[in-house]
């Protein structure tokens, strides 16, 4: 049942043993919202635990209590009276769903989240789930400690591309300002999140070299095949390196994560990439979305490029002549300076 923020707060107050979770392939918002909720609920005297069914990228250790996040083991159970699912619909929590049969409370900001399970508070206008959790703190009358503020700020910053993307609203900046007043140091958080090993930076350059342009340069794609995927530790932020190309509306990154499993990230300046991701079984936001294509890398590439082109043509983002212009333009076709 769709519920209000006040009802969401009441559900949390009424519960005693709360299992918190967020989506697999977790980002700063998923982890930030989970860890902020963990601290708020414990402050309220509740038993609370975060489970996420995935590896937690090392950069997110900037958030207090990150080491408390557990990954469900085979046949493990957790005694809970409420399962709070953050930053995703209930279909992307992996094996966490096997931990408990407790009623679900879903708090999310994805426009594609139409899951009608349990109770849900979905605010598609919120820049981040952390923005909703921030409002929830006020609704609950909870004190935002510096540690909670760090988690919430990290989620706001990562989901808005450090307050650059179109989802950055006055309310987002006001929330961020309040969190900074509570002791968050934005520069320290960005430094931690941006940190890369020398090896990863070198691999990033190899990834950039795979970039190709399609459809008269309006689409750019980066291709992390099996071999490159084995070497790269962190693909976070790679897509932003090609999103900036002047001719590009839609940028995509496709990586081979297992045999016949390809993960796709989509970003855009105009096109509603959430709709493209939905056509491929995924979802997300208007300008940042993703999906998984269960095909070989080569097949998945073809399907993805075709689906992007079809959607853009149907919705006026590509002219018919541009749609016909499917030719790939690779970096090799450009004259590179000798020192590159
Ligand atoms: P990213 O490209 O950073 O993995 O994801 C961009 C956005 O799309 C995030 O908000 C993420 O939660 C969402 N997203 C990514 N992959 C999927 C997917 O397979 N299904 C759904 N529903 N959302 C996704
Ligand atoms: Mn989010």
Describe this structure in words.
The protein is an alpha/beta fold and 340 residues long. It is 37% helix and 18% strand. The chain has 12 helices and 12 strands. The chain has helices at residues 5-14, 28-43, 129-140, 146-159, 170-181, 186-194, 198-209, 226-231, 240-243, 273-279, 297-314, 320-324, and strands at 17-22, 47-50, 82-86, 104-108, 119-122, 212-214, 219-224, 250-258, 261-268, 283-284, 288-293, 329-330. Strands 10-11-9-8-7-6-12 form a 7-stranded mixed β-sheet. Strands 2-1-3-4-5 form a 5-stranded parallel β-sheet, with helices on one face. The mean pLDDT is 94. The protein binds guanosine-5'-monophosphate and manganese (II) ion (MN). Residues 29, 87, 109, 128-129, 159 line the site of manganese (II) ion (MN).
TL;DR of this structure?
The chain is 37% helix and 18% strand.
């Amino acid at each position: 049942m769709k519920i209000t923020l006040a009802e969401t707060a009441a559900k949390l107050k009424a519960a005693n043993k709360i299992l918190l979770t967020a989506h697999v392939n977790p980002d700063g918002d998923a982890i930030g919202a989970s860890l902020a909720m963990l601290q708020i609920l414990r402050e309220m005297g509740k038993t609370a635990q975060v489970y996420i069914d995935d590896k937690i990228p090392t950069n997110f250790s900037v958030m207090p209590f990150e080491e408390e996040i557990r990954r469900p083991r085979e046949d493990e159970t957790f005694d809970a009276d409420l399962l709070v699912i953050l930053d995703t619909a209930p279909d992307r929590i992996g094996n966490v769903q096997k931990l408990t049969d407790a009623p679900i409370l879903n708090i999310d900001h994805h426009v594609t989240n139409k899951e009608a399970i349990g109770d849900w508070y979905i605010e598609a206008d919120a820049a981040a789930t952390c923005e909703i959790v921030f409002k929830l703190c006020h609704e609950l009358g909870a004190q935002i400690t510096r540690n909670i503020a760090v988690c919430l700020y990290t989620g706001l910053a990562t989901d808005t591309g450090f307050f650059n993307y179109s989802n950055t609203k006055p309310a987002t900046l006001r929330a961020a300002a309040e969190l900074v007043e509570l002791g968050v140091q934005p520069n320290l958080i960005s430094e931690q999140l941006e940190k890369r090993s020398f090896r990863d930076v070198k691999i990033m350059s190899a990834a950039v070299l795979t970039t190709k342009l399609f459809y008269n340069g309006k689409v750019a794609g980066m291709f992390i095949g099996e071999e490159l995927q084995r070497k790269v530790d962190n693909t976070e932020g790679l897509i932003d390196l090609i999103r900036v190309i002047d001719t590009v509306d839609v940028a995509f990154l496709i990586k081979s994560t297992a045999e016949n499993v390809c993960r796709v990230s989509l970003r855009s300046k105009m096109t509603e990439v959430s709709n493209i991701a939905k056509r491929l079984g995924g979802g997300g936001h208007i300008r940042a979305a993703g999906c998984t294509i269960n095909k070989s890398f080569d097949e998945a590439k073809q399907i993805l490029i075709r689906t992007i082109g079809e959607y853009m043509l149907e919705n006026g983002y590509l002219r018919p002549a541009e749609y016909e212009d499917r030719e790939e333009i690779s970096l090799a076709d450009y004259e590179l300076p000798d020192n590159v």
